[in-house]
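REQUEST ID: PR-0412
SUBMITTED BY: lab tech R.K.
PRIORITY: routine
TASK: structure prediction, single protein chain
INPUT:
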Amino acid sequence: MPQELVSHRMESRRRVPIGRRQLAHEPVKLILALLGVALAVALVGLLFGLREGINRQVSLFEDHAGADVYVASKGTRDFPTSGSSTLPASVARRVGAVPGVSEAVPVTNSLGILTLHDKRVATLLVGFEPGRLGQPWDMGAGRRPQKAGEIAVDRVMADTHGLGLGDSVHVRGRPLRVVGLTDGTAAWMTPLIFVTRQTANALEGRGDSARFVLVRGADGDALASRIARHFPGLNVMTREELRANDRELLSRSFNSPLLVMVLIALGVGALVIGLTTYGFVADRRREFGSLKAIGERNARLYRLVAGQAVAIAVVGLAAGIALRVAAGSTIHAVSPKFLFVALPAHYAILVVAALAMGLAGALVPVRVLARLDPQEVFRR
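STATUS: complete
OUTPUT:
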């Protein structure tokens, strides 16, 4: 290779920051690319945060009811959809006689449909024994229901629909008077509402029955095994097992749509990066051709383009995380039933996803460079 070309090539390495110059040369295109990546990252972060928030909401009752073990009919595996299977309330007394049990309380639960402003609102209705396990754990206003015809509703739902203490709501066609507003019971799909077990059974047209027996005692695992030996025909679960079953139920219905939306967001981000870096390469074909003509190696040019793509991805990642935090906080403040919970694993996923978008976005521009003929520079 002629000495002057070698010297020019070495000088180009030292003096021509072509990657940075290309990014800065078209700021509008760069800003639009960063915005597209940031939106993709924020959307992925919001989806993962919402999924974790729903995971926590779906097990609100188990997390706060105070029971260590849950006893149900054989086919019952989760709390929200316990089905039509019931137990005689007398089972609670028999369970209470098992050694190690300090308290055993029957509880009725079911999906409750409220009619509010001519709209049907889905809720998870809990029928509890006043003063015992399973009652509302955090009263924001008013009191817990104590007799038939009374109800305590979630405060967020009450604010949304303009309900207050003393108002009447219809559950399955029957009027119930609101005597309390509960905190910590909001949920995206089915907020919790509370009535006495007597009221819950009357709404379902059942006698003295229950869907669960809530049990308190020392060493939940050992206690569950002991109860299961005494009652082989029933399903005995620890609090952790029932919580896991609830979340598994949610995962089966939510994970597939979540995956589709995440893949779409990542695809859009990779496309934005690819189009942007391709535009930089296409607009600078003569510069790249000149570099190849003077002997610049393809590998360095590939690294240059990949570096541009990854730089866009990294800056977009930082902006996307900030946008995700701000959007999640704003949405929760406006509508508290939407809970966004960020885990360290979510941020690790976002980092990997951003790098993947950057590398995927560099594929097409790199192929363009690979096919670029240096002689084009001299023919034009």
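NOTES: The radius of gyration is 31 Å.
REVIEWED BY: pending
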